[in-house]
Amino acid sequence: MRVLIVGGGGREHALAWKLAQSPRLSALYAAPGNPGIARHATCLPIRADAIDELARFAEAERIDLTVVGPEAPLVAGIVDRFESRGLRIFGPSRAASMIEGSKAFAKGLMAKHGVPTARFDTFTDAAQARAYCRVLGAPLVVKADGLAAGKGALVCQSLAEADAAVDLCLERQGFGAAGSTVVVEEFMAGEEATLFALSNGSDVVELGWAQDQKRVFDGDQGPNTGGMGASAPVAAVDAGLADAVLARIVRPVIRALEADGRPYRGLLYAGLMLTGEGPKVVEFNCRFGDPECQAVLPRLEDDLLPLLDACARGGPLPPRARWRRGAAVCVVIASAGYPGEYRTGVPIAGIEDAEAIPGVLVFHAGTASKNDSLVTAGGRVLGVTAAADSVRDATGLAYRGVDRVRFEGMHFRRDIGRGRR
Ligand code: AMP
Ligand code: GLY
Question: Which residues line ligand 2 at a C-beta cut-off of 6 Å?
Fold first, then answer.
């Protein structure tokens, strides 16, 4: 099969690395890709949001399957545009992607179908939102409705913070149109875990559990980022809990979307809080998590390509995916200043040394080639990933890899995977 990957971050590098191992693959392209992806695929100078250009390429090059990494083109309708031209593509339609594209939509769907999630209400009026904050009491969470690159959830410890968050979204348009509606919800205490589920529109197959560490500094301090590291599997999730999440959360949502005329074909990311009252949904995403994907795929024994193709075709899925024993951990190395402003073009050294350690893989997230050398090109630059028998061993190995990478101003969390078995 001839495959095109849309995107150019760490998640897409992990997808390219895994798809490149498929015996069914005959050609692999990535748009735009990155220098790490270029080891597995031909990279094209087409942006991930240039939907018509991507479709023209897929037509001209007789691409059998396009795999979409990031949420923005999905929410913008890349799948609908490809399918209207008869092109096969992995990912949910625009209507189904609203599960991530609108938190108000996702919460409404959960409320209607009794899917456990934090108590909430939705507002466009600031005074009404502030009044509801007083009904819930602090701590609470104020969320911009639309896409905000992982920065739209404001966890507020006091009513004063909640008022400021409401003000930022609704009165100062801090998130633009994405924040012109807000969801105000109860704070849930517990351990977070992410489930990946593949769906062909009606059936579901579990594609692994992971934990993401989203705050920028050790000990979960500082602002939220896209994710500073991930580990898989999740010790707190046993087979009973996994089955319960599929039965009470994932399958009802897939059925509800199908009944609503927006069948979900793609990867459903369920971000969960494991609370004292059982697992509850924090959020849904319409694509693989980044960096969770980098920790999940190294453990997948199965060929990923036929699974993604079955979802895209609406064809049958196996009852379960097959996994390697052991664990994987991904430590993200970021640019100085991330998640705030950062500079790019900083030379990177030591990747080959890190990859010389058996079991270590370095996924490129924000890198570029400049005059034949590798430089930084994003906030999250690399994901140093290791597979081993346990999360503890994989963590040790990943940090040995991290120690061999060098670029000016690089920073990373030192507690990824810590305390997890
Ligand atoms: P989201 O963008 O909805 O994934 O939220 C980002 C992060 O904010 C989550 O990973 C949680 O750590 C935190 N968060 C969001 N909603 C809640 C909630 N209702 N209770 C506790 N923490 C939350
Ligand atoms: N790592 C969180 C996300 O991909 O949304």
Answer: 150, 212, 226-227, 285, 289-290, 292
